[in-house]
Amino acid sequence: MEITPVATFEPPYYTVVFTSVKKPEAYGDGGYPEAAQLMNDLAKDVDGYLGHENATTPGGLSITVGYFRDEDAIRAWRDNLDHQRVRKQGRAEWYEAYSCHVAKVERSYGFRRDAGSH
């Protein structure tokens, strides 16, 4: 599987940055991996979802960046009942701390080396 960033989109669009630190017990059998996969799958069903990226530092800081066409798509994601349930469970069981930032993207560009380039 090739690792590549999410493609750029024609601005404006929106990004939701979810940064978290999980409790040590979240890495066990507490259901976190299954819930994270469910959230990834549900987000893809939102009209206006453009993509997302996840990264985790060696120290345990996790960052998920979701890309959405507009604020209506973000609201639809926020108001999804399964998403609400998992957020509540996350606060109760999995997270030490988290922050969520919503921003409007006004400029977007990228680079990708061609497969044959050196």
Automatic annotation (TrEMBL):
It comes from the Bacteria. InterPro entries: Dimeric_a/b-barrel, Jasmonate_Hydroxylase-like. One of its GO terms (molecular function) is monooxygenase activity. Keywords: Monooxygenase, Oxidoreductase. Transmembrane segments: none annotated. PANTHER family: ABM DOMAIN-CONTAINING PROTEIN, BLL5343 PROTEIN. This is Antibiotic biosynthesis monooxygenase.
